[in-house]
Amino acid sequence: MITLKSQREIDAMDESGTILANMHIALRDFIKPGITSWDIEEFAHKFILDNDAIPEQIGFEGYEYATCISINDEICHGFPRKEVLKNGDLIKVDTVINLKGALSDSCWSYVVGESNPEKDHLMEVTLKAMYKGIEQAKVGNRIGDIGHAIQSYVESENLSVVREFLGHGVGPTLHESPDVPSYGQPGKGLRLKEGMVITVEPMVNTGSWKSKMDDNGWTARTKDGGLSCQFEHTLVITKDGPRILTSQNDQ
């Protein structure tokens, strides 16, 4: 079932989203060579609690951590761990927070230390693809319009879009209808309505879009060992266009 959010619910989710955005902004300075993804997990968990919110992912289908932290060829749902991050690692930090019942969901990608042209291109295309998808999230459009905008741009840059993991509705629980693929055909799929709150979250690979699952049953990685990047915003569809609830001031 798809729930259309009231203005009161949207404002509450916006407040939740501001906390999550500020967490990602703070991570820009925190992430550096020599720390571990477990350090990032502890930093994020404390940041959420210090802002009177709770990490919604803990306990979701048995998941144990406040964040998913995926490194290099890991696409999503990587476990935080105590291996030291190396200069040049591409990491994705994804979390959902709950502020007095109002949820927000956002993933951001970072390079540890120094980047290179391949990673810069991958990150630039993934970020731009997310915003191209968000531009299509308006009343009267269809789900396929979002996915087509993402897929056509990514593939024009000789990269690929992951198929197995999707954006989704948010609130009152973490994963709600509708599914929001990062691929598709224009004019196809569910029609978008005012008050829908969804995530747009392209996962983009340097090689094949195909994935494989680790033995832990959670972590997906690229089948060919290529790099993967992800950016994600939570947004509400309004009569005036999409309103991003997890905006990081400049992004």
TrEMBL record:
Binds 2 divalent metal cations per subunit. Has a high-affinity and a low affinity metal-binding site. The true nature of the physiological cofactor is under debate. The enzyme is active with cobalt, zinc, manganese or divalent iron ions. Most likely, methionine aminopeptidases function as mononuclear Fe(2+)-metalloproteases under physiological conditions, and the catalytically relevant metal-binding site has been assigned to the histidine-containing high-affinity site. It catalyses: Release of N-terminal amino acids, preferentially methionine, from peptides and arylamides. Substrate binds at residues 77, 175. InterPro entries: Creatinase/aminopeptidase-like (IPR036005), Pept_M24 (IPR000994), Pept_M24_MAP (IPR001714), Pept_M24A_MAP1 (IPR002467). CDD domains: MetAP1. A divalent metal cation 1 binds at residues 94, 105, 232. A divalent metal cation 2 binds at residues 105, 168, 201, 232. Its cofactor is Co(2+); Zn(2+); Mn(2+); Fe(2+). Keywords: Aminopeptidase, Hydrolase, Metal-binding, Protease. It comes from the Bacteria. Its EC number is 3.4.11.18. One of its GO terms (molecular function) is initiator methionyl aminopeptidase activity. Residues 12-239 form the Peptidase M24 domain. It is an enzyme of class 3 (hydrolase). Belongs to the peptidase M24A family. Methionine aminopeptidase type 1 subfamily. Monomer. HAMAP family: MetAP_1. Removes the N-terminal methionine from nascent proteins. The N-terminal methionine is often cleaved when the second residue in the primary sequence is small and uncharged (Met-Ala-, Cys, Gly, Pro, Ser, Thr, or Val). Requires deformylation of the N(alpha)-formylated initiator methionine before it can be hydrolyzed. This is Methionine aminopeptidase. It comes from Carnobacterium inhibens. The gene is map.
